[in-house]
C-alpha cells in the first residue's frame, strides 16, 4: 500500500501528541563546577528521551524500510540557574507532535512534514558545594531547563526535488497533524541583532578542524551534539579573546539550525563573532564546509550561544 493509497485514521481516534515522562539520575559529568546542569547534557539526552515514547506509537521500522528518515533541522535548549546534586533525579517531560513545518499546511509548494518536540526538565535543588555534592536541599523538583527539537522527514536517497516528505504517511496515521505556528528557525532569525550588546573588537574568528569517526553516530553522519559542543568551545574562545573572564563564563542557551551534515574525514571551519556587555554574551557561530577555494560562505550548521560572565 503506498502513501497515496492508504486510508487515514478517523480524526477522532488520532492522538494530539505523544507525551513521555521519565526519570534519570544526575551523574558527575552532567554538572559543571557550579553544580548547574550543562546545556550539552540536556542536548545529549534528547534523542533517547524522545525515541522512548515515539517508537511505541510509530512504526519506525516501517518508515525506514520505505526509505524515510527524520533528521534534526533545529534545536533550542536552555538551562536554568539552579544548583543540582549528583545522584538526584532529573524528571523529564517530552511532547512530540507531527507537524507541517512550513506553516502553510498540506498541499502547498512549501509543504514539508516532520516533528515538533518540546522538553521540560526538573530536579530537586542541591547544596551546590563540593563537600556536599550529593546533598539535596529539598526533594521537591524545580524547573531546571527546557528544550525544543524540530525533526524533518526526508527521503535521503531520492532525487533532490523528492527528498522532502510533503504528504501524509501510513505509519503516522495515529497522530493528528499540526501546522507550525511560528516560523521554523533560520540562520537569519538566529542572527538577529543583540540589543544592548556591543560587538567584540576585530572580525570573525576562524578555527579549522576535521571530523573523525569518533564524531559520528550510526546514522552515518556527525552527531548533533558534536556541532553544539564546537559552538560552545568557540564561544569560550571568543569570550577569552575579548578579555572577559572565561573561567566564569556560563552557557545558558544554545539554539541552532542544521542545513547540511558532515561526515568522517570532512574538513570544516568554525567561524564565530561575539557580542557582549559587562555580564551577557551572545556568540554567533557557524560551521562551514570547505571547498576547493576555502570555506564556503553559507554555514552548514549555525548557532546562537547565549551566556553570562
Write up this protein.
Strands 1, 2, 3, 4, 5, 6, 7, 8, 9, 10, 11, 12 and 13 form a 13-stranded mixed sheet that branches. The protein starts with 17 loop residues before the first strand and ends with a strand. It has 309 residues and is an alpha+beta fold. The longest helix has 19 residues. It has 4 helices and 13 strands.
What is the residue-mean pLDDT, rounded to a whole number? 92
Give the helix/strand class. alpha+beta
How widely separated are the two ends? 57 Å
Number of DSSP helical runs: 4
The low-pLDDT segments are 1-7
SSE ordering: EHHEEEEEHEEHEEEEE
Rg, rounded, reads 21 Å
Number of strands: 13
Strand count, sense and barrel status of the largest sheet are: 13 strands, mixed
Strand residues, percent: 25-35%
